[in-house]
Amino acid sequence: MHIHHEVTGSGPVVLLTHGFAASSHMFASTVADLSTDHTVVVWDMRGHGRSDSPGDPAAYSVRTSLDAMLAILDDIGAERAVLVGHSLGGYLSLELAITHPERVAALVLVDTGPGFRSDGGRDEWNAMADRYAQDLDDRGLDGMPGSDELTASVHRSPEGLALAARGVLRQSDGHVLEALPTIGVPTLVVVGERDEPFLIGSRYMAGKIPGAQLAVIAAAGHAPPVTHPDAFNAVLRTFLTGLPVA
Predict the structure, then answer these.
(1) From CA 32, how far away is CA 90, in angstroms rounded?
(2) Which of 47, 75, 104, 107 is the most exposed place for a label (fewest CB within 10 A)?
(3) 106 SS3 class
């Protein structure tokens, strides 16, 4: 099963993970900026972009997504990486830092959240994921949600996206949120000033993860790497420059 990934540059490894219905294309500006002195790795989640879209729902889960991230790091010979994750990619990066902390040098969480403590909040989120999937079932790629980082033409399969919505985007408990105080790597939380659904969660993560920094990108919405690349790249580079030398 093919998981598309690309490696650019040399130096400390940074693994960039996109959000639901986006793809590695959203990080074009970030790759160009960081690859001058970092090994920058981008990839497409299963069902997204240039990765395969198998028909088996069991292929789409948080666990299979984490396995893909670890396999990519193994493939390039990287023992550890800085994980930069946007939206769903940020949630997956948190999961990887919690379950495999030995593989994570630092975390950058971009317009994402740690899940929900209450069943009510989780139910609303899962209902949204189900709507996304149903729209893709009904309308194909025309049913994709609207956001600055999403481009229908980069995808091959609305079926794969719908399976990812039902299998990876949905949440079942609050274990990631509860584990935030256990994260022991340098962490930067980035959020767009106008991304109201994720402002509260971003501030919460920055307060619960020990030593975490918070950066609010002025005038940005949900996708600062796409809409405000200069400001995003500047705060990312400042954070990376301040990391201890491995």
Answers:
(1) 21
(2) 75
(3) strand
**Cα distance between residue 193 and residue 185, in whole Å:** 25
The H or E element containing residue 6 is strand 5-8
Q: In this structure, are residues 97 and 185 in contact, taking their beta carbons and an 8 Å threshold? A: yes
Tell me which DSSP letter residue 180 carries.
G
Tokens of 187: 């962490």
Q: 3-state DSSP call for residue 113?
A: coil
Element (H, E) at 13: strand 13-17
Helices then strands, each counted (H, E), the chain: 9, 7
By DSSP bridging, strand 213-217 and strand 13-17 are: unpaired
In order of their start, the domains of the chain are 5-241 (3.40.50.1820)
**Residues of the chain above pLDDT 70, percent:** 100
Length of the chain in residues, anyone?
A: 246
Q: What are the strands of the beta sheet with 187-192, ordered from one edge?
A: 5-8, 39-43, 13-17, 81-86, 104-110, 187-192, 213-217
Give the amino acid at 36.
T
Give pLDDT, residue 244: 87
